[in-house]
Each structure stands twice: as C-alpha cells, then as structure tokens.
Amino acid sequence: ATPIKIGAVVPLGDITGDQSAKAMKLAIDEINAAGGLLGRPLELIVVDSELKPEKGAAAIEKLATVDKVDFFVGGMASSVHLAQIPVMKRYQKITIWSGAASYLCENAVGPDADWYFHLHPWDYQQGASYGLGWTELAEAYPDIEIEKIFLAYEEGGFGSASHESYLVLQSQANQGEGAWAAVMGDYMGVSFKSAALGGGDYRAMLQQAKAYDPDLFVWAGYDADALPMLQQAKEIGFAPKFFVGAPPGWPAHFGDSPLAEAVTLYGMWAPTINKVSPTAEHFWNAYIEKYNEEPATYFAPLGYTNIYFLAEGIKAAGTLDKAELIKALEEVEYASPIGEVLKMSPSNVIKHQGFTGQKILQWQGGEQQVIWPLNLKTAEPIYPFPSWEGR
Amino acid sequence: MKITKSLVIIILLIAAALLPVVTEAYFISVAITILTFMTLSISWDMMLRTGQLSFGTAGFFGLGGYTGIIAVADFGVDPLVGIILGGLLAGGVSLLLGMAILRLRGLYFAITTMALASVFMVVIRNLNKLTGGPSGKIVYTTLFNYDSVKVYWLMLGITVGTIVVSEVFQRTRVHFAIDSIRADETVAKSHGVNIYKYLIFVFVVTSIIQGVIGSTYALQYGFVYPESSFSAHYLLLPIAMALVGGIYSTIGPVLGAIILGLSSEYLKLIMPYGHLIFYGVIIVVVVLFLPNGVYGAIKDVTGFRKRRLEER
Amino acid sequence: MLEVKNLFVSYGRIQVITDFSFNVGAEAVGLFGPNGAGKTTLINSIIGLVKPRSGEILFEGESLLPYETHSIVRKGISVVPQDGELFPIMTVLENLKIGASYIKEARDKVNERLEFVFGIFPVLKERAYQLAGTMSGGQQRMLAVGRSLMAVPRLLILDEPSVGLQPTLVTELFEKLSMIKSEGVSMILSEQNVRQGLKVIDRGYVIENGTLAIESTADDLMHNEHVKRSYLGL
Amino acid sequence: MESISFLRKHRNLFLLIAVIIVVAIWKPHAAIYGLQRGSLYSLVGLPLSLTLGVVGIMNLAHGDFLSLGIYFVYLFATNLGMDPLVSIIPVFFLLFGLGVVIYKLTITRVMKSGHLNQLLLTFGISMIVLEAMNLIWTSRPRSVYVEYSSSSTTIAGVRFGTYELLYVVFAFAVLIALQLFLKKTRLGQATFAVGQNPQGAKIVGINTGFVYLFVFGISIAILGIAAGVMVPRFAIFPSVGSAFTMKSFCLVAMAGLGNLPGILVSGIVLGVGEAIVQSIPGYAGWSDIVFFGVLIAVIMIRSLRRQSL
Amino acid sequence: MSILKLDKVTKRFGGLVAVDNVSMEIQQGEILGLIGPNGAGKTTLTNLISGVHMVSEGKIIFDGIDITFLPAHKRCNLGIARTFQIARPLKNLTVVENIMVGGLFGNGEKLKESKKSALRLCETIGLEEPDQTLDKITVLDIKKIEIARAMATKPKILFLDEVMSGLNMDETREMIDTVRKIRGTGVTICIIEHVMSVIREITERVIVLDRGTILAEGPYSEVSQQHNVITAYLGEDA
Ligand SMILES: Nc1ncnc2c1ncn2[C@@H]1O[C@H](COP(=O)(O)OP(=O)(O)OP(=O)(O)O)[C@@H](O)[C@H]1O
Ligand SMILES: Nc1ncnc2c1ncn2[C@@H]1O[C@H](COP(=O)(O)OP(=O)(O)OP(=O)(O)O)[C@@H](O)[C@H]1O
Ligand SMILES: CC(C)C[C@H](N)C(=O)O
Ligand SMILES: [Mg+2]
Ligand SMILES: [Mg+2]
C-alpha cells in the first residue's frame, strides 16, 4: 500500500529539532510495527529548517510539491514559523505544529485556518498557567507567600514576549482579574543579553533583582544562561525565595551541579513524569533503547505526541478526507508522554490549540520533580530557596 | 560574437522567466531565495569595486524590510509601494551615513558599517511601538498574497535590474572612476576623479538595492523579526557567493549565488545532519583551488585557450 | 664565488631570460641593458624570489636553487632591490638594524655598520627616527642601499642603486662601493648610470632581450661603440 | 622631561584609569563588572590584533577556535578531572598545534591572494569547525563546575566577584607577554617586518613562512588561555565563541591596526560603557548602542585626526 | 605671464618643515627645472600644487584662481597635471584604460572620445600594446603611462617628477623628445630630475630648492656655476 506521508520541518542542528525529529521517527516506527494506519504504512520526511526563515518556508514547499506529503508537522522557532505560515496557507494541508510560542504566529495563522492544530502553548497561555500554578501552590502550602515578581528576560524575541505578557497580566492583576490576581502584587522586568547571543553577564540585572527583593524571581532565557546566572547570583549573594528558570531546555548534566538544587523551572515535561504517566515511561524507555541517549528537551515527547495525535485522529476518522479528519482530530483525547491528556480547544485566535500550560518543576537531587499541577506532583516543593552557603 | 552573446542572454532570460511554468513551487521558492542572495551579492560586489569592503549589507537589508512592513502595516500602502519605500529609506539613510563614514577606509570602514547595521537592529528592537520591538511585526497583506510565481517574477525583475545596473557600472565612466579609486586614490583624484562623490553614489545605489531586496523579502513572508531580519547570514553568504563566483564582476556573484544556493539546498536534502560542514568544505576547496573564483577560473582557462589558439 | 649557468627564466609562458650564463669572482661585475632586458629578473632568480625554469646557480660551489630567499640571504648575499622593499612604518634606524638582525655574521657588528652607513648617507643619521615611508624618494633609495650594507655581505647585489640620488651622492656612493669592493666584497651592479658604474666594476655584461649581448672588461666596454651610443650617450 | 613624555606616551592608559576611578565612585559595580568583562574582550581580542593587525591575516574563525578551546578544556575537565585553569597548559599547546596544522594546510595557500580570500577561507573553516562541534557535542550547553568560580569579597561595603578578576590578570599578562615578544625578540621584530612588507622581510633574511606559521599558531594558542579562564564561568556550547569574533574585530578597529595596548584600553572602555548602561534600570537593551556608538565615534575621531595631519 | 604663483608656501610634517616659505612663479609656456638635493622638498611642492597635500601656510594661485583650498580633482580639472616620482600605475586597468582615466575625469571626455584620445596618446608616446595588462610591464612603459595619463587630462601645466630616472641614454633621449613634443602643444612644464644632462638640455630656467627654501634661480648654465649650488647639490665633477 502507498504510505501516508508526513512531512516534518525542524531545526536539526539544534537539540530541540534533532530530538523531536527522532521522537517522531520513534512514533512512526511504533505505529508501523503495529500495522500502520488504514492498512497503510506511515512515512516521515524530515527537512532541516536550519533556523532560517526562508529555508523553513522552502522546506514546506518541498514537502508539498516534491514529496507531496499529506500532513505537515514539526516546528520550533517562531521566526521560522512566521515565514512558513503563508506557504502553509496556500496548501491548507492538515498541520500539527509543536513549536512556536509567539502570539504573532497565531495572528498570522488567523481564525479561519481550521486545518491548523497547534500543540505548544502560546506565550500568553504560559504566563497565565504559571499564575494559576503559583496561586494553587500558595493555597496548598501556607508558608509560601508570593507577592513581588521579578522577571529577568533575555532581550531577544523569546524573552521579550514573556515580559510583554507579564505586563498585561500585571495590569489585569491590579484590577483583581486574571490568573495572577492573587499572587502578583508588584512586578518588575529587567532584560539581559543571553549567553546564547553573545551576552552572559547577568550581574547588573541580578543587582537590580537583589535590590528589588522579589518573592518570585523568574528568568526567561536559554539553556546557556542557566548555570552562569546561578553562579553570578551566588557571587552577589542573591537568593530569592523562588529561583525560577523558563528556558526551552536545560544544559546537559545541569542536575549534577551543586547550584541546581531547589532551582524551580517551568517546563512541559520532566523525566520524573515517568512515575505518574505510563505513556511517558514507555516513551522514555523506547527512546533510550532506540537512540541510546536520553530525551533532553520537552520537544522530544512533544514530537512523539505530534505523530500520535495525528495517528489517533486518522484512526478515529478512518479516512484521510480533510473535513472528516479535522472533525476527528477535534475529538481526539490523547494521553501524551507530556503527562497530561491532549485535547484541542480554541485559544485567542485559532480554533485548535492543544496544550495550554506548562508545569512547575523543581530540581531536587539532580532530577526535575513536578510540583505543580498538584495532581501530577512527584515531590514536595523546597521552600524557600536555600542560601548559597556551602554550595 | 556580439550577436551570439546577446542571443545567449535572451535565451537565458526567457528560460528564467519561464521557470515557474516548468517546475514545482519548491524550486521556485529556492529560486527566489537564490535571487535574493544574488542581488545582495552583486550589490556587495559593486561596493567592493570601489575598494571598500562593506559589512553593512544585512543592515540595509533589514532596514528595507522594516520599512516595507511598517509602510504596509501602519500606513496601509500596497506592498509594491512598500518595496519602493524600503529602497528609498535605505538609500536616504545610506546617503546621510555615507557622507560621514565614506571617509574611512579598509578595516575601519568595514567594521563601522557592521557596527551601524547592529545599531539599526538595536534601535529597531527598542522602538516597540513602531517596529514591534523584539518580537517582530507581521502584516496580513503579503506580497501578491503569497503567489510565489508572481513573487518570483518580481524578484527576477529586481535581479535583472540589479544586473543591468551592475553592468552599466562596468561599462561606463563609473567603472573607470571606481576602479581607479580602488587601485590608487591619490592617482584617481590627481586625474580629476571626485572620489567622495563616486563613493557616495555607489554606496547609495547599492544600499537602495539592499533595501529593496530586504523589503521584498519581508513582504513576501509578511513579517520582520530583529534577529532574522538583520541576521549575519545576509552579510556573510552574499560575500561568500561573490568570492566563490569571482569578485569585481557581475557574472561572478551570479554564478556564486547559483552554485552556493543550489549546493546548500541539495546537500541538505542528501544529508540531513552535518550538511553545513560540507558546505564549508566546498567553500574552502573553492578558495584553495580557484583563488579567483569560478568565473575567474573560467576566464583564465578560456583566455589561455584563446591565446594558445592564437599562437598556433 | 657566484656562477650562473644556462639560466632560463619565464613568467608564465613568457620567456624573460634565455640561456644566460655569467660568473662573479672576487670582483665587481656590471649588468647593463635597456629597460625590460631582464636584469631584475636575473637578480631575483639569484636570491630565490623567482624560480628559474632551468639552469644552475652556484654560490661558492653550492647550488642556491633549493633554498628560499631568507636562507640565501643568510649565506652572505645581500641585495638592494629595485623598488626598495623598505618597511614603511618602521623608523630609518629600525630599517637599518633589521638589515643586520637576521644574519649571524652581521648581528654583532651593528653599531660599526651603522656608523659606516651613516658615513655614506649622513641624512639617514639625521633622520634616524623618521618613518621610512615618509622619506623622500631619494632618501628611501639611500636607506635601501644602507640596509643592504648592514648585512656585511660577501656578495652585494645592487639593482640600480643610484636612481633618484642627487649628483653629489651618486659620486660618493660609487666611491664607497669601490672601497667596499676593495675590502673583498664581491659585487653585482645593475645600473643605468653606466658612466659611473664603469668606474666601480671590473667586468660587465650587457644583457638585451634576456640574452647576453656583450661580455667584457670595464675598459673595453667603455670603448665599445654600442655601449657608447646606447648607454653612455656619446 | 622624561616623566612628561612617559605621561604622554601612556596618555590613554592614564585617561582610562581616571575614567574607571570616576565610574567606580559613581557606580562601583559598573566599574568592576565593566573592567572584568572588558578585560575578557581584550584577552580574546589580543590574538586577533596580532594576526590581523600585525601580520595581516584575516581570520573569521577566531571565535570558533575559542569555542574549540573551550571544548578541549571541557574534555580535560570531564575526562581527566583536570582543573580548567590547569588545563590551560595542555590546551595551549593543543591549539597551537591545531593552528599550525590549519595554517599549513590552508591559510598558507591564500597568504598571497589577499584579505578577501582569507576572509572566505576562514568563513568556510568557521562553518566546518562550528558544525563539527555541533555534531559532536550537540547544541546543548555543558558546563564545568568549580567552586571558586563564584567566590566574592567585600571591600568598602561593595561586594563583588573575585573570579573574573582573573580576566584582568590574564589580559594584562598576555598583553605584556606579547609586547615583550614583539619588542624584545628577533622573531617579534620579524613579525612587524613581515606585516609591513613580506618581500622586504625575505630580503633581509627573515623566514616569512615560519613567522606566519608561528604567529597564527600562537594566536590560536592564546585563545586556549582565554578558554581556560572562561570555562568555569561560561556555558559551553558550539557558538559560545562566535560572538567574540565580531567583538574582537571591533576592538582591533577601535584600537587601530597593530596597536596591542589599545586593545586593552578599548576593551575596558567598551566593557565599562556597557556595564554602566546595563546598570541603569530600564535601559539594559540599549547597551549594545553604547558599544557600537563608542566604537564608531572612536574610529571616526581617529580618522579625522589622521586626515588633519 | 605667470600661470602659477606660489605665495609664501610652507608645509610642515609634524616638526619637520619640508617646504619653507617658498614664493615662486612659473611662466606660461616655459620648461622649468626644479632641482635640489634629496629631501629638498621638490616632490612635496608638487604634492601641494596638485592638491595631494594641503599647504600649512601660504597661497597658491593658478591661472588667476586661488586654488589653495581646492581638492585635487578640481585642480586637475583646472589644468594641473602631474606624474608620480614612484610611479603609480593603476594595476587593475590596462594600459589604455589607465590613460582613459585622465581623459574621462580630467578632461570631461565621453567614453568613446577618451578611448580615441588615449590611443592617440599611446601612439605619440610610444606605448605599443595599449591593451596590455600591467602585470608584466617594464619600468619604461610605466613611466610612459604616467606621462600619457597626465597628458590625457589636457593640462595647462604638467609636473614631471623624475620621469627619466632609471632610463638608459637611448630611452632618455626618446623621453626628452616626448617632453619637447608636449611643450610644443603649449603646455607649461615643470620637470624634476637628478640627471643633469636632461636638465641642461631642455630647461629654460631652473629653480634650486634646498631644505625647503629656494637656493638659486636662473638658467641652468648660470645656476650650475653658483658655488652654493655646487656644494649643496651638483658636486665638483658635474
Ligand atoms: N611578474 C612578472 N610577470 C610577467 N612578466 C614580468 C614580470 N616581471 C617582469 N616581467 C617581464 O620580464 C621582462 C624583464 O623584466 P626585468 O624587470 O627583469 O627587466 P630589467 O632589465 O630589470 O629592466 P629595468 O631596467 O626596467 O629594471 C620584462 O619584459 C617584463 O615585462
Ligand atoms: N608624509 C611625510 N611625513 C613626514 N615627512 C615627510 C613626508 N613627506 C615628505 N617628508 C619629508 O619632507 C622632505 C621633503 O621631501 P620631498 O619628497 O619633497 O623631497 P624631494 O625634494 O622630492 O627629494 P627627492 O629628490 O629625494 O625625491 C623630506 O625630508 C621628507 O623626509
Ligand atoms: C519555547 C520555544 C518554542 C521558543 C521558540 N524560540 C519560539 O520563538 O517560539
Ligand atoms: Mg630592473
Ligand atoms: Mg622627490
């Protein structure tokens, strides 16, 4: 039988794209081993976006016209995705996208694109979900007190978007509305230059944070910022009650560093979710067996989810007919290795948004433990952040 | 000789214009990208012919892109008008800046142009209201509504225009002015060449080209984003293309853009991982074995053959 | 001392030196010829800046062909290149010293040699701290000659040393060259100022179109009709 | 008389010290952080000033060799448990060897064909090195933890990090070593000569091939020193050094070709400038403007001064 | 009638006074010799007049116009041309193209005209292969290019800075003929040379410069007898 072709565009040079492509391949192999879909095997065609917009757009064109794929999947950076959206709109193939957080992408896609399914939470959704998380944590643990929020954001697109959504959330909170109403009494945002972009000196920013003395110190940057920032925080003696990082991935062996203990993080997934989710555990083991390396970023389970979500839809629809498949995908409930059940719902603009929030995790004993959502909790939070003495 | 030459050119032009009829959208989008870099590469080379190494290509490219997007998004102009505005703004800015920095030479000029490009980016990133700041800006009316065939024809037109300008520069007094400036400014000015005027002229013309290309690129996809609109690869790749093809000529950058543009795309398809290594290897090999670039090598060989024939 | 045998040199496919042989003993030898005859090319072949196509160049019995310029120079051959080849943003003094720095025999005679050079060209002493690139044309020529003398060579090759020197200095230079020669330094002198050149040299070669036209002693050259007409302006 | 000319000769240095003192009183942290980061810029910029400024080799892969050095340090630390600062010694020699090999294989063949071909060649090399690192170690950052890297001390009520003072120490040490090499050794003098006129250098008996080889090798090797001091404080990822290429070129242009002490002065000026802007709440995003603004201003002023001569 | 007038011109390089308060005039149509020891300031003077350097003090009047502050290219357009002591051929252009630069920008010619006039100049001056590139050219041809390129600007006054140094007798004679031809077209010529036979033969008047000041002035036959000129410059046996 002719295979069902799925075209993926990811940045292969980056660990996120690399691992998400591998996880997709894993899912495809599993499904094929189980007999494929509709009696047809699945075929995955991966094209590197090189993190360049025009390359990412050309990749979509290639998948559409040369490989004649049935579906588009993949994704990571918003800038690349923005260039792909007009192309995707031309082909209007069913697209399950697991990257890009910027709300601009959502605006560019527009409300009419019923073929567009987006898995990664939008930047504003992430912001809102954290508010919910902290509120629940503050309720669950009476000694946790959250009032002053300090956001350190990298000055590029990724970090600045966070800052902007925090500003919106703050103005809502001031009026007693929104997810942060209970936990954001005051807010301050300061930018820094990420080490990934040639920066790496955070001390000016940390000095301001120290002077501000926040309850919640959050930094939105890249994995390369994680350890140097902790070192410099230690150097200036800055230990906020919560030290939270929100990079898309973490450095290798981060947990081994003595500075990592009790660092909180936002993330969609952590290896410890294996303890509470069988899919996660299965994914983890299968991935390691196949590739002889551990999934290191949530883009791995997200890529895996991407394929399975589509497969579930096809299975339910029993056809590749676009309209029926869209309907089926709207109904799919997939218990993903991310730890929660994936189900589409509308977001601000688009009809089909998948995940809406991230989790709050904490590095404890070298592992990421889930501390929120409370129902997925794998450990109790360490609070407050211990002092730097003796690390 | 002349007739065959113009015939070849006409055939090539027709073939280029008909490309969309015979190929897939994918090749068209690859072709658009190649043309984009080709124009950047030619424009960089045009400046180089004056002896000035410009590192500002990406800066004017990005500036043009932002102008185009802002014109369309905030002032509601047609994208085609946006493209023209992108060129004009880049030209205007380059005129003002050129008056100051074209007194610099060599590395100092190169680094200053690069610094200016970075300044453009930082300023744009911090003017949130107008430019969307760090998270970029999108428009909903893209160029020809993302009809890539039309975009291709437009790009082809711009490229042909650039080639014509470049060739005009090579065949008129401009050629003698800038080549003498490159060789020896003291001699040039002692023989009546108004160095400053010509430097500014070429700088502005090439910046306009870069601005036009930048806004075409941005309006084609309908967005600008500081990190990608000013990305160094709009500087480094055009330079590499011109050098690989052969500098101080129009055909060199053209060849270079085609060679590097196609090989990067092809390499990527045959080897998903590590294709950039081989891309680097190609570049290294070309420099080592064809120090005058591909066109230079062709010229050497045919020139050699011609001479041999004459000797017989 | 130096023996050049059947030398052929070409640039690309253009033959510049054709079957040229000559030798230098403990004497000064002149090379004369019109512009483009190949004098500079010959000199550049000897010091290894140009690789000959065939032929042999022997210095004290040893072939120079396998060596690079710097090794050849260190063997005791010093050259005044036609276009000076000075270090423009070093001072005059540094330029002179560098002439001795990389040659063992010369290194510990620097001060002595400096005095010698300053004796010939006092202006170099006056301008010891001026940058070489800002010296006048003639001053730069002096510096080039001076630098070559710093090397305490056993064979001194001068490619048109007197070009652009004021008349008094030309006379003085050739007097000094005679003196240097008498101290046992061999010399190859390429000159357009043949009249002055003939005062220094013992023998001369006239090279035209890359081949040997005349070879004879200085005295004979002086009276050679061809030389008189084309080179002496008589 | 002597002392006046001494003052004049080091005018820039004294000016710099004065500026730092003023800044230190006004914003002590900005002064310290700027001094530290600026010294790091200088430490990485110095070898480029040697290759580009003194002998005229254009090397666009400068920062990628730094990254490579950083990975070497990482390997020594993780496999042999070597302290990063100690591993400077083997990495120095490793990189020297690597520089020599790369020079012999490639760069020597483009020495005659000018800066632009060197630019293209090293662009290709940079791409190869960067992608090779990416393939081997992935884009995921790594790190080497040493306890002393975040030590700090308090003087006059100002608490500041002590580790990065090593940048200052090493920058000065490398500068002094290079100056001694260039001014006091015959090879160093030869380096200047080769930079000004390679043909002339041959004629006075200088082995120009060796000079190029040595200078290129040593400049890559110095990146090993920078790598060693950086590792305890930096995340290790393939493009960690890339940003330093541009910064180093900027420093060379700001200091003026061939001016090594100028690199240190420029680096520190830019570092302090950046740090001041970063310390003003709400304006951190503009710090690059200061960097480039100062750079452009200095280049322009210098060119005007040169013209009026 | 004087075509060029220098009024108390001084040029300093840092502490060094290269041209010291020089006042002089060049007459329309004459061949003037400018001689003097190495470093006397001859080339510097040429640079000041042609606008390569700007005067530190003083005034330069050309053809009734004060050109002291004019940039070089404007001076060229007014009719001042010069060659360079250390010849500076434009290596990336061919022989004829080198010469065309002069016509195009110095004389405002159109492309075709300039090519024609350049070819004519090649012929006059004896450049046999106008389409040759400059990588294998002889010293003599380079000097010829220098002159032809300057001539292409259609100057009123031409400065020749040591164009005959390094030539043999045959070549020198040929060059002298060329200079005479040029002067025959009405161009004023100022020639700098250390070869006294040339100066003796073609100049009508010489100015001797020494250490930036004028040491002597007059016909060569007279000046060459002056004691101070002999000791400073000529030497006994000239
Ligand atoms: N690099 C080169 N490439 C090609 N041809 C060259 C090169 N250098 C010199 N020639 C040619 O070789 C011939 C000999 O030149 P060379 O400089 O040796 O003559 P010369 O006798 O020293 O003349 P001059 O008196 O002008 O110094 C000339 O015809 C010249 O054009
Ligand atoms: N750019 C400069 N900087 C410093 N000094 C200079 C500069 N140019 C020339 N000089 C000095 O000015 C003086 C005059 O030089 P100039 O070149 O005019 O001499 P000249 O008369 O042409 O000599 P020659 O006969 O040797 O060519 C010389 O002492 C020279 O060293
Ligand atoms: C979390 C990631 C998806 C962030 C990505 N760089 C973006 O711009 O959206
Ligand atoms: Mg010669
Ligand atoms: Mg002179």
TrEMBL record, chain B:
The chain crosses the membrane at residues 53-73, 79-99, 106-124, 151-169, 198-219, 239-264, 276-298. One of its GO terms (cellular component) is plasma membrane. It comes from the Bacteria. Keywords: Cell membrane, Membrane, Transmembrane, Transmembrane helix. It is found in: Cell membrane. Pfam families: BPD_transp_2 (PF02653). The keyword Disulfide bond does not apply. It is a multi-pass membrane protein. One of its GO terms (molecular function) is branched-chain amino acid transmembrane transporter activity. The keyword Mitochondrion does not apply. This is ABC-type branched-chain amino acid transport system, permease component.
Automatic annotation (TrEMBL), chain C:
Belongs to the ABC transporter superfamily. SMART domains: AAA. One of its GO terms (biological process) is L-amino acid transport. One of its GO terms (molecular function) is ATP binding. Pfam families: ABC_tran (PF00005). It comes from the Bacteria. The keyword Membrane does not apply. PROSITE patterns: ABC_TRANSPORTER_1 (PS00211), ABC_TRANSPORTER_2 (PS50893). InterPro entries: AAA+_ATPase (IPR003593), ABC_transporter-like_ATP-bd (IPR003439), ABC_transporter-like_CS (IPR017871), BCAA_Transport_ATP-bd_LivF (IPR052156), P-loop_NTPase (IPR027417). PANTHER family: HIGH-AFFINITY BRANCHED-CHAIN AMINO ACID TRANSPORT ATP-BINDING PROTEIN LIVF (PTHR43820:SF4). Residues 2-234 form the ABC transporter domain. CDD domains: ABC_TM1139_LivF_branched. Keywords: Amino-acid transport, ATP-binding, Nucleotide-binding, Transport. The keyword Transport applies. This is ABC-type branched-chain amino acid transport systems, ATPase component.
From TrEMBL, chain D:
The chain crosses the membrane at residues 40-58, 65-82, 88-107, 119-137, 165-182, 203-228, 260-277, 283-301. InterPro entries: ABC_transp_permease (IPR001851), BCAA_transport_permease (IPR052157). It is found in: Cell membrane. Keywords: Amino-acid transport, Cell membrane, Membrane, Transmembrane, Transmembrane helix, Transport. GO terms for cellular component: plasma membrane. It holds the Pfam family BPD_transp_2. It comes from the Bacteria. The keyword tRNA-binding does not apply. This is Branched-chain amino acid ABC-type transport system, permease component. It comes from Mesotoga prima MesG1.Ag.4.2. The lineage of its organism: Bacteria, Thermotogati, Thermotogota, Thermotogae, Kosmotogales.
From TrEMBL, chain E:
One of its GO terms (cellular component) is plasma membrane. Coiled coil: none annotated. The keyword Acetylation does not apply. InterPro entries: AAA+_ATPase (IPR003593), ABC_AA/LPS_Transport (IPR051120), ABC_transporter-like_ATP-bd (IPR003439), P-loop_NTPase (IPR027417). Keywords: ATP-binding, Nucleotide-binding, Transport. Pfam families: ABC_tran. One of its GO terms (biological process) is L-valine import across plasma membrane. It comes from the Bacteria. This is ABC-type branched-chain amino acid transport systems, ATPase component. It comes from Mesotoga prima MesG1.Ag.4.2.
